[in-house]
């Protein structure tokens, strides 16, 4: 429960010692940080009667001196300006200021100068500067995630903001874990190298903060680039959490159902959290086929409970029902939530013929055989039921796999894509190859460069695969296996500084610049459960599905085009 517990502990400490009625004031980032670990009812138990955003509270003038204000903000210059204005004309009885990362001395002086009425009771740094979506998975929710694709010369100031946010997030994770890592990065990636070096520099400059008790083995921070594995975010998913994100979308552990149909008000947005939902926790990594069976079982259990509740004959029965009602209502809400999600996803799968599409995707990702692959992709491009986005993804997956060995067929697919899908020009596929083609990647994405990987793939092929739709394993899985075996090559993943790590680390944080996927967080959870002696944590700049990955590509392509003389 490592990351979720760390953030929960910070929120608990912020609210626990301040007695009386409180208002919690957050910014657009910290609202996500708090909402994934604390429910509204838990905040109420801590006497938080109002949660407001700092920019909207700035517009109000009404005095609320009976409330104590607890601010939890990122230490940005914009937030400091908001605070200065609010302290110059205080509306609340007390101000308790908590920042999610390190404050600069100048910022502290500005706040002190603004507090003329001495309403500020405390200013503290609580290092929860990341969104802990699962116990071993965090994200930074960076809206400008596409900057990782662009060369540094295109937009230096925005790229610097991007790198600063990544360094802040990584620094906060290690401060929350009370560790100081050794750092390695993906050799082929300029941005991974830059973030690795800037993180190392921060550790030098803030060495007092990171002066933790030395462990025998320092943890490892490995910074890699999404472009090393562009395949994983392009694939359809067939395990529960990943599939919900791919087909509907998850934001801060919430699913907004309004985008796919009309639902009653209390079901328009549902929470999918392994911390708050036992059924989801047990099934988040299960295959779609098994989920249907498990939901049926849950519905049967619920009907048993409902039946016993209908059998109310005495006053005692009624009292018992009222006592159990909150639990009953919660169970009812949970059952209807999962039934709704699975029903809606089944409709999408049928509508977009995703089982057909996905079988070819998996073949493109996992098995050789260019002739059969070309035929399968051509047939799907001709199939009227296949959507534009699925056609684009199929051509991208084919291009990534066979860019070197079948340029002629690739051109044929580009032409067919252009004629079938007016919206997507083949230029986006070429842009992907330019950014994440074979010459740009670190690691053995298709398991065909390294003799050991070729042998392993053959062995897997002989053993057979239990499920054709989930045979793909992300490159991250191989990377973690290499770390467990002590075989992560220095030439591919160099160290920052004159560090070198003998032996295996016990804790590893892998940060993917450009974003993670739920398929990768599933690999992390499975390896952590396998008792390899190493605890892995996965983090990234965003949580991707194919839609977001393609949107980032398109945005980067647009900027690259308008700077064509630079790129």
TrEMBL record:
Superkingdom field: Eukaryota
Q: Name one GO cellular component term.
A: SNARE complex
**Major localization listed first in the record, in broad terms:** membrane
Q: GO BP, one example?
A: regulation of vesicle fusion
Q: Which SUPFAM superfamilies match?
A: Sec1/munc18-like (SM) proteins
Q: Where in the cell is it found?
A: Endomembrane system
UniProt keyword annotations, A-Z:
Membrane, Protein transport, Transport
Q: How does it sit in the membrane?
A: Peripheral membrane protein
Q: Which Pfam families match?
A: Sec1 (PF00995)
Protein family per UniProt: Belongs to the STXBP/unc-18/SEC1 family.
List the protein's name: Vacuolar protein sorting-associated protein 45 homolog
**Upper classification of the organism:** Eukaryota, Viridiplantae, Streptophyta, Embryophyta, Tracheophyta
């Amino acid at each position: 429960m490592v990351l979720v517990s760390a953030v929960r502990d910070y929120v608990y400490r912020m609210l626990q010692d301040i007695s009386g009625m409180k208002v919690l004031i957050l910014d657009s980032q910290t609202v996500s940080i708090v909402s994934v670990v604390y429910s509204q009812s838990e905040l109420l138990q801590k006497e938080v009667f109002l949660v407001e955003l700092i920019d909207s509270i700035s517009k109000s003038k009404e005095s609320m001196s009976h409330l104590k204000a607890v601010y939890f903000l990122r230490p940005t210059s914009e937030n400091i300006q908001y605070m200065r204005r609010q302290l110059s004309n205080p509306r609340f009885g007390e101000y308790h200021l908590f920042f999610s990362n390190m404050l600069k001395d100048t910022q502290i002086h500005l706040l002190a100068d603004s507090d003329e009425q001495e309403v500020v009771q405390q200013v503290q740094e609580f290092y929860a500067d990341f969104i802990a979506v699962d116990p071993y998975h965090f994200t930074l929710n960076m809206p400008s995630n596409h900057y990782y694709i662009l060369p540094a010369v295109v937009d230096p100031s925005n790229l610097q903001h991007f790198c600063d946010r990544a360094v802040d997030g990584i620094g906060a994770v290690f401060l929350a874990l009370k560790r100081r890592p050794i750092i390695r990065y993906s050799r082929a990636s300029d941005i991974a190298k830059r973030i690795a070096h800037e993180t190392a520099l921060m550790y030098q400059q803030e060495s007092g903060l990171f002066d933790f008790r030395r462990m025998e083995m320092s943890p490892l921070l490995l910074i890699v680039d999404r472009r090393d594995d562009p395949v994983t975010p392009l694939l359809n998913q067939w395990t529960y959490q990943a599939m919900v994100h791919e087909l509907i979308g998850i934001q801060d552990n919430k699913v907004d159902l309004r985008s796919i149909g009309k639902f009653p008000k209390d079901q328009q947005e549902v929470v999918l959290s392994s911390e708050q939902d036992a059924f989801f926790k047990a099934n988040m990594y299960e295959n779609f086929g098994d989920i249907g069976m498990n939901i049926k079982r849950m519905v049967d259990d619920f009907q048993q409970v409902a039946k016993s509740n209908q059998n109310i004959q005495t006053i005692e029965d009624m009292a018992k029902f009222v006592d159990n009602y909150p639990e009953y209502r919660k169970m009812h809400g949970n059952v209807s939530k999962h039934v709704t999600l699975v029903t809606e996803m089944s409709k999408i799968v049928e509508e977009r013929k995703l089982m057909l599409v996905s079988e070819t995707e998996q073949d493109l990702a996992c098995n050789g055989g260019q002739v059969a692959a070309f035929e399968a992709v051509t047939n799907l491009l001709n199939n009227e039921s296949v959507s534009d986005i699925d056609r684009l993804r199929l051509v991208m997956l084919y291009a990534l796999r066979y860019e070197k060995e079948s340029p002629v067929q690739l051109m044929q697919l580009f032409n067919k894509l252009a004629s079938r899908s007016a919206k997507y020009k083949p230029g986006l596929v070429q842009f992907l190859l330019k950014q994440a083609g074979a010459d740009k990647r670190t690691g053995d994405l298709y398991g065909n460069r390294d003799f050991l990987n070729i042998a392993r793939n053959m062995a897997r092929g002989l053993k057979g695969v239990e499920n054709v739709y989930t045979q793909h394993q992300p490159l991250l899985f191989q990377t973690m296996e290499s770390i467990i075996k002590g075989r992560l090559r220095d030439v591919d993943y160099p160290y920052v500084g004159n560090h070198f790590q003998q032996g295996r680390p016990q804790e590893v944080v892998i940060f993917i610049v450009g974003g993670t996927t739920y398929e990768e967080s599933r690999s992390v959870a499975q390896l952590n459960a396998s008792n390899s002696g190493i605890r892995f944590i996965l983090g990234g700049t965003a949580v991707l599905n194919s839609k977001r990955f393609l949107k980032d590509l398109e945005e980067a392509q647009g900027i690259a085009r308008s700077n064509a003389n630079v790129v």
